[in-house]
User: Fold this.
Amino acid sequence: MSAVETQEVRAVAKWVRMSPRKARLVAQHIRGRSVPEARTVLAFTQRAAAREIEKVLRSAVANAEANHGLLGDSLVVSAAYVDEGPVMKRWRARARGRVARIKKPTCHITVKLVPGPETARIAAPPPPEPAVEETPTPPAALPAEEKTESSSEEKSAEAKPKAQTSTRAKSKTSTGEKPKPRTPRKKKEEADT
Assistant:
């Protein structure tokens, strides 16, 4: 009896500052749904727990893609449950010297994913082909025309200094000279006289 093993991928968010009872209301909506459908449900759920569960779902999908080579959109949420975490206890002063207990609950959110019926894997990139080194042809093997052209190009490149190869003109401030101050324009009356 050979049973087909399904890969189960999970993600857990611990010590989330939220009541487990409130988070369970949202977690039950995504059980058994595909990942794109679960994302849509969580995006349009107005409860605060939906944001936290969406983060855990995103983490589980990332784990499946990175560690197991599965395609995220072909996965199904097999389990989504919320466990109770430790409760932080605080006190508030009340009348006649009494205190009222404040409970700040935490929870642990777990989302498990399994491959869906149309299981698809991310294609692994093909291995790189070995680089073939090309040996340059020796200058003696080149025809006479190519020799003269390449040697004349090399000589012209060596003859020109780098400053002359630039086509952009330099401004006076970049050369170190101070620009001449502008002379104020004469008024129209002075120009007529």
User: Anything to note?
Assistant: The helical segments are 20-30, 35-43, 49-68, 144-159, 162-165, 172-175, 188-192. The radius of gyration is 37 Å.
